Amino acid sequence: MEADHRIRVVVVGGGTAGWMTAAALATLIPGAARVHLVESAEIGIVGVGEATLPHLRAFVTRLGIDEAAFMAATNATFKLGIEFRDFGAIGERYIHPFGTYGRPLAGVGFHHYWLRRDREATIPPIGAFSLGVAAAADHRFARPGDDPDDLANSYGYAYQCDATRFAPFLRAHAEARGAVRTEGTVATVERHPENGDVTAIVLTDGSRIEGDLFIDCSGFRALLIGGTMDEAWEDWSHWLPCDRAVAAPCASPEGGIEPYTRATAMPAGWRWRIPLTHRVGNGYVYASAFLSDTDAMDTLVGSMEGRPLADPRLLRFRAGRRRRSWVGNVLAVGLASGFLEPLESTSIYLVQMAITQLIEHFPNIRVTNTDRDGFNALVDGEYDRIRDFLILHYHATRRDDSPFWNHVRTMAIPASLAEKMALWRQTAQVSQYRHGLFLEPSWIAVYLGQGVVPEGWDPRADLPDAAALDRAMTALHDGIAATVSGMPDHAAYLAAAA
What we know:
Strands 5-4-14-15-16-13-17 form a seven-stranded mixed sheet. The protein has a six-stranded mixed sheet with strand order 7-2-1-11-20-19. Strands 8-9-10 form a three-stranded antiparallel sheet, with no helix packed on it. 35% of the residues lie in helices and 19% in strands. The chain folds into three domains: 207 residues, FAD/NAD(P)-binding domain (3-Layer(bba) Sandwich), CATH 3.50.50.60; 125 residues, no CATH class; 73 residues. The chain contains 14 helices and 21 strands. It is of the alpha+beta class. Helix 1 packs parallel to helix 6 and helix 1 runs parallel beside helix 8. Strand 15 and strand 16 form a beta hairpin.
């Protein structure tokens, strides 16, 4: 019999992170990895987030999963973006879309022309020049086509899904492709006496599972990366003070199904609303220094639009990340690696990003420093950029109605974010980076949506004749409105696709 030279990968923990990891390795590199997942039915999953980013579409497609089957299994709806209410000031709202604003002209971004004309005349808000925003606001949806030059395809979409159903769906996919599952709880961890690598985990029933690479998907417990490898945690709670959430589902109210997630700023944090096909997910993310758990639960229940389907569940967390997510032969994915609150639906994306980088840096025979260092540099950079984007939502506010908002408005922010905001305020430029999440349109959405208006813009935007520019912008606005009017209602689209 031919020897099996594949890397023995032991995934500790199930849930979304564990089964995404197992499914990806078993599907994408079956010739390099032998996957064994260990999970305990006694340990529940967090399952806070039910909203995702467009990157999950690529993940589902890459694994060969049929979108319709995935959506049916997870009671999913489509998502065109996130509506933010009361963040810049009470009474204001905007949508952060998965798409662009207008079209660049002569190498200059559309928002520069919009800023110029907004200063000179009365024109529609910038969201009116985004097909994604316009469709979301009108509760319409259609899948975009493949031609990026066509205005009708200038947006993307994600899913709003039941996170508790996603992991079982992926488990079936992973096991069908060779992943092995063992039910059990880890009792002890064995390590190499010289280099400190993990050699095996021993379960409470005495079973011993050896491996070459151990993936820690044990959630906030961080059984291996924290408990065994003792990797330091970088605490970001001084910038992101929300440290708790209460969550509960309710029955869907009468009416349509919005193709977007809603985030409503509250006196001590913010509240989410995520419509699925069978219910609505609700939650209140808050800072315990400014609000009690009891008051948070009462507020959440009082805000629900439908009949509560379960009692509120309390979750405790802290913002931050491991100093390194890959130490020795232990690699952390998901909450064991870091946590950034669900304000921009990044939790599943961060899992997916780590899996992608793991595959890119997957060991050849044995783990090397090159594998670890490359992985850690990319993961760290992604966490840091997302951290800055989330802080922006809190810091860029004019609210002074509560101690919480006074705190986040006046707090010191990371130098990296301060530099980004200074560049925007002076020139309307968005700091560029080649890879990663939240590129120029996302920053523009939050900056302008929360009242951070630049002092100037690209001087090339002053070159076109004002009348010609207005005609072009009117044609763009009318073209978007016409395209949206021809799209089906979101709920009707879901029903037809079922």
